[in-house]
Structures are given as structure tokens and as C-alpha cells.
Amino acid sequence: MEPPTKFHSRTTGFCRATAQLAAIAVLVGAGLAATRSDAGQNPAGQPQEESDEPNFVVIPLRTELQRKLVADGKRITAMIQLNGYALLGNREGLMRAIDALPLQKTLAAMKARDPNASVALMIGYFGSASPEMSRKSRMNRDAVERTCRLVANGAKVSIVYISSTYDSTPDRWEKTVAALQKIDFGKETADETAVGDADVRAFAVRTQVTRLLTTTFSAETSRGADCVVYLNKPIEANDNPLIDAQLEARLADTIKKLNLPEKNRIDYHLIPAHPSRAAAQRNREAIQKRFLGQESQALSERLGFKGSAVTF
User: Of 205, 215, 239, 311, which has the fewest CB atoms closer than 10 Å, so is most exposed?
Assistant: First the structure.
């Protein structure tokens, strides 16, 4: 059975739309990544001579929130993140472009530590791209997925979730690698579990990995989120406001239970109701046109936050 493949689309609360890692967040040169026996201590690894950056990083995932953000809550050990645009034009040489041997060694070391290890694969297309590059990325995606499955199978590690993300932020890949190199994974021990109920689930961001996963690297939101909220009640375009007073009150009560030390940014994850294709599109448009901007910012301020980001 093939792992689910999803395509993400993220939009910040400052109305800077980004088509996304089912919806998130994006080069040239092949690099070596995560070759040490403990990928958690060196996720970005050491680059080869021809490039200052690797073409993949392996990020250990240890909390409920991290797994929710990356793989919709599936029990995974780590995320493989690929530099997608660096792989364009390499369909016949993807093994080398992906840095298959060091990647397989990293996964094999993970398997040796945890016989039940499994991973998510995220192909990140980061940075500005021409229409031709975007077209090639779509054509190349299946080949990249197949190659990564071969590499993972060689290490006897399952890829249980696959996603693709697009982000036009300049130097996004380089910034991601640099941020990973600064994280002391030995200190990433904080708990990030949800509070709330079936309709409202809220998480406090307490680790540097999660802060990185929620960072868009724009000037306004480069620090990442302090709180992540999943509103599981489907959003209907006919609702006015889209988050009604009763749901807002439940959201406020849930966030209070987190005892957040800081409230700079809150991330909302919304579900558009989709009884039909046309209705789903209307509900998505309602979120984009009505909730983003004034409505989300006003709600965030009432909840005590300075800014927000929205994923749907």
C-alpha cells in the first residue's frame, strides 16, 4: 500500500499567500547530509565540496505536535526534507542528486536504533521559480518519490507519508539548513501534547524543531508560532463570522489551559466543509477572502496574540 501523497497550501495572517508541506511552506548543487550515526545530532550533515548545502535533511520528530504538523499525526520517527528545485533535470541521475548513499546510511542508523522507525517525505520547492521550473517540478515529483522509496526500502525504513510544499521566500532552503544546525537536539525534550476537545485542539510550541516547522522566514513571522490550533469543525461560507462567538469562546478557554509564556503568533489550521466540489471551493474562497487579514487578525488580538498564520 502506497503512503498518502498530499499537497499543502499555507497562507500567513498578513495576507501573503503561499501554496504549500498539504498546506505549508522552498538551487543548485548536490550535498551530503546527515551521515553521522546519530541523525538527531547532525540533521543537516556535512556538504560535499561542490556545494555548501545538502540536498536533503533528516529532522527527528518526537512530539505529538511535530507529527501532526508534518504527517497529520501519523507515528513517524523523522521527516526527510528534500531540496526539490535542486533535483530538476536529474531524472536519470536522481540517486546522485538526492545523495542516496548518505541518506540510506542515515536511515539505516535510524533503523538500528529503532526497529519500528518510519519517516515522512517532504519535497520542498523553495524560492522563486519560473513557470517552466514549476512545470518541471510537477513532472519530476513522481520520479523523486519512487527514488526515495527505493532508498528507504534499502534501509528497511517505511515512508508512511509524502507531501510537497511550495514557498517563494528567498533562500528558504539555506535558512532551513542553517536553523537546523543551531538546534541542540539533546535538549529537545519538552512535551507538546494537545488540550481541548473534538472541535478545538490547541498546542503550545515548546521546542526549537516545532518553531522551525512553523517558521515562514518572512520578516514578520521569522520566529515561528507560539501556539498552534486545529479547528476541526468544518468551515462553511455561509457562516458569518466564519468563527462564531461560541467557537471563539471555546477556543479562548482552551488556549488559557496552555499557560503560554509568550503570545506573539498563533497558527490556525482550518478545515473547509466539502459536501461537494463546488461547495468546497466556495468554503476555501471564504477563508481566503474573509478570514485572512482583518477577521483573523481581529480574532488573534482578542485572544491576546500579535499576529497569526492560517493553513487550510
Answer: 239
The predicted model gives 108-132 an average pLDDT of 92
| Local structure of residue 182 (DSSP, 8 states) | T
Query: Do the strands 227-235 and 56-60 form a parallel or antiparallel pair, or are they unpaired?
Result: unpaired
Tell me how far apart the alpha carbons of residues 242 and 310 are, in angstroms, rounded to a whole number.
13
Sheet strand arrangement including 5-7: 5-7, 158-167, 118-126, 78-83, 56-60
Q: Any idea which residue has 528507504 for its cell?
A: 152
> Which of residues 3 and 225 earns the better pLDDT score?
225
Question: How many whole angstroms separate alpha carbon 56 and alpha carbon 59?
Answer: 10
pTM reported for the whole predicted model = 0.81
Quick one: which of 283, 222, 210, 289 has its CA closest to 15? Answer: 289
Q: What are phi and psi of 236, to 5 degrees?
A: -110, 135
Give the alpha-carbon dihedral of 49, 54, 58, 64, to 10 degrees: 140
For residue 84, pLDDT beyond 80: yes
Q: List, in order, residues 6 or more apart from 213 with CB less than 8 Å away.
A: 66, 69, 70, 224
The answer to whether 14 and 36 have CB atoms below 8 angstroms apart is no
- Predicted confidence (pLDDT) per residue in 213-268, tens digit: 999 876 554 679 999 999 998 988 888 889 999 999 999 999 999 999 999 999 99
**Residue 16: pLDDT over 60:** no
The three cell numbers of residue 284 are: 476555501
pLDDT over 70 (residue 48): no
Q: Smallest Cα–Cα separation from 229: which of 190, 188, 257?
A: 257
